[in-house]
Amino acid sequence: MIPRTIQTWHIKSWQEELSQLVRSPAELFERLNLDPSLLPAANKAAEAFPLRATHSYLARITPGDPQDPLLRQILPLGAELTSPEDYSRDPLHEREANPVPGLVHKYAGRVLLVASGACAINCRYCFRRHFPYAANTPSREDWQAALDYIRADPSLEEVILSGGDPLAVSDKQFAWLLQQLDAIPHVTRLRIHSRLPIVLPSRISPEWVAILRSSRLEKVLVIHANHPQELDASVHEALQRLAAIGVLLLNQSVLLAGVNDDPAVLADLSRRLLSLGVLPYYLHLLDKVDGAAHFAVPDDKAEAIKQALMQKLPGYLVPRMVREVAGASSKTPF
Questions:
Q1: Helices 171-182 & 140-151 angle (0-180, nearest 10)
Q2: Which residue ranges make up each domain of the chain?
Q3: What is the pLDDT, as a whole number, of residue 135?
Q4: pTM value?
Q5: Which of 6, 98, 152, 283 has the least C-beta neighbours within 10 A?
Q6: Can you tell me the distance from the alpha carbon of 327 to that of 310, in angstroms, rounded to the nearest whole number?
């Protein structure tokens, strides 16, 4: 059974909710009845990496519970202000694979376009929390350099839209970009990586789905859910719209201390995803980005979780546990 949210956030449009994000730690603390002694550290952490959260996501958080697994993903903490020596601002060396603005080319056969530098929520473990979005959010004219790069390389069969969040762009901009990709003969597949179906499910509007459906490209949407509590009725409705037009739905998660570092939680997540028509895809070990060390799960515990999932679930529900290594030709199995 798909749970309802604790309260319903009524909106006129996804644009309205996106324009009314919770950005102030004080507002977050008041709304969720959090311990005010944590507020000074939250304010300092939010200066380094701003707080952003949608009302629909907050509606799934239990008020007064500082350990709520959804809250932990968005709550700025004093722990973010210091990092171990082996953590960095660019743990995957993406700037070295950024040949033209808005484009990252790390792996053979596919290229990533930073369609938008904006997100509906700021996940505190984000490996791109220090990414230079200001230099990688091109105008339509600037997009031509990225599109020319793709046109010039016939080995590129897949284009990945990422961000930020690629679904933060307007329908008009998304339709234009899709038309440009449709016109490149050797591009056969479109993959979209987005957290919006989880944190802003109203974004999957009938109008946007119609735009996506019009493309000749094979369509894959990789959502990002870390905990079964994130999968409420509004998410179910959004995913049904995508499944109805034949989009392949996959999920990737990040293994996070205090959020989902429990095989029972992850097994429940896999089962719930399947009930929504989504297959588990990747379970990422944390990227060592400055500010996120408190989310790290030790390798021995990660191995134990992987073994437990293999015992609890059929193989098709066990996400592949991987680590991304800078400069590697693919994700590295763990």
A1: 30
A2: 14-81, 94-333
A3: 52
A4: 0.91
A5: 152
A6: 29
